Amino acid sequence: MAEGIEMIGESAAMNVVRCLVERVAPTDATVLISGESGSGKEPVAQSIHQRSARRAGAFIAVNCGAIPATLIEAELFGYERGSFTGAARSHEGVFERASGGTLFLDEVTEMPSEMQTRLLRLLETRKFFRVGGSQEVDTDVRVVAATNRCPIHAAQSGVLREDLLYRLAVFPIVLAPLRERGDDVLLLAQYFLDGLNERSGTQKRLTPAALDVLVRHSWPGNVRELKNAIERAFILSDDALSLEILPVRAAPAAGDATAATGVSVPLGTTLAQAERQVIEATLAHWNGNKSRSAQALGCSLKTLYNKLAQYEREPVRAVG
After folding, report:
1. Nearest-angstrom CA–CA distance, 159 and 161
2. What's the CA gap between 11 and 77, in Å, rounded?
3. Residue 33 CB: number of other CB atoms within 10 A?
4. φ and ψ at 37, to 5 degrees?
5. Which of 87, 121, 229, 240 maximizes the CB count within 10 A of its CB?
6. Considering only CA atoms, which of 93, 98, 67 is closest in space to residue 78?
7. All domains of the chain, ordered by start, with CATH?
8. 14 closest CA partner among 294, 170, 223, 251
9. How far apart are CA 235 and CA 254, in angstroms?
10. How far is residue 145 from each of residues 31, 56, 160, 184, 301, measured CA to CA in Å?
11. What is the SS3 assignment for 247-284?
12. Alpha carbon of 281 to those of 120, 242, 260: distances in Å?
């Protein structure tokens, strides 16, 4: 991993992402990273930049959904002096400031339609006009974009221009949610805790009960939620980050009296169909956590992934 940039995780899902980053980083291909909010899309973009020939250039991140529609054009493309009220001097936009480096366009699907049109032209020509400008500006920038939506659905619903989707997704990377990364949650929790200990000169630790609840929590806020949970517990703890001070709750454990742990298999069900029902019920019970599901099923994670891939290819057959 490049210095200062971390992609923490040893799960199958993260190993795939790491391999894709290694492949695409040395190229100048445009990358589109999709994944749930808080799943760590910007660190992946930073890793691509740090592993590229552009690493000495700037890495600039822009959240397209956080900039008002009236300001986004000037922020992206810059403006000339006198182009609007208050424009007392010329201003370089991020496409100029990131030239020679990488521009990370986060939540690109939130960009207004007219800006998507301008972005498409820039990606095709590497030229653009500042607001109020009459002379084209050249830029040598690599674009890495990201979205928390499904890109295909965004295009089908009209939120993202279809032609822009094809131009952005030259090399797509899908980042799995934290609940599907198994014990990566423990590696990430320890990473965040180590950083807090180093900055504070402490040696706080996570208790076994806390580690267990971290693995079993569904993490709807993904890595961002985990980081905030560890920091809050760190502030409240003296020596150990215990279960009681963690601001999260686990999914019901296997065997919990309140959990629906039974699977009903009617007569006439084949062994293959029964196996599928058990696997799918186990995944549902563990909120999609494949690592914990594989442990509960007594099989390897690779075997579980192979079974799920097989189920995607085969329709569910009715019994009887």
Report:
1. 7
2. 40
3. 30
4. -60, 130
5. 229
6. 93
7. 12-176 (3.40.50.300), 179-245 (1.10.8.60), 259-320 (1.10.10.60)
8. 223
9. 31
10. 6, 20, 12, 25, 31
11. CCCCCCCCCCCCCCCCCCCCCCCCHHHHHHHHHHHHHH
12. 44, 30, 9
Helix then strand count (H, E) for the chain reads 13, 9
CB burial of residue 201 (10 Å; 0-12, 13-18, 19+): exposed
**Contact yes or no for 133/90 (Cβ under 8 A):** no
For residue 315, name the pLDDT band (cuts at 50, 70, 90): low
Q: Are residues 223 and 40 in contact, defined by beta-carbon separation less than 8 angstroms?
A: yes
- Confidence check: pLDDT of 251 > 60: no
Q: How many Å apart are CA 205 and CA 215, to the nearest integer?
A: 16
Could you tell me the two tokens for 150? 């499904």
Q: Which residues pair with 226 in a beta bridge?
A: none
CA distance 2 to 4: 6
Closest listed residue to residue 39, CA positions, set 181, 234, 186: 181
pLDDT tens figures, 202-217: 999 999 999 989 998 9
Comparing 297 with 67, the larger pLDDT belongs to 67
What is the torsion angle, in degrees rounded to the nearest 10, for the CA atoms of residue 14, residue 309, residue 37 and residue 288? -100
Whole-number Å distance between alpha carbons of 300 and 289: 13
Is the distance from CB of 293 to CB of 174 less than 8 angstroms?
no
**Beta-strand pair 127-128/137-138:** antiparallel
For tokens 């196996």, name the residue.
Answer: 275
Burial of 69 (0-12, 13-18, 19+ CB in 10 A): exposed
Task: For 95-247, list the strands marked E by DSSP.
Answer: 102-106, 127-128, 137-138, 142-147, 171-174, 205-206, 240-241
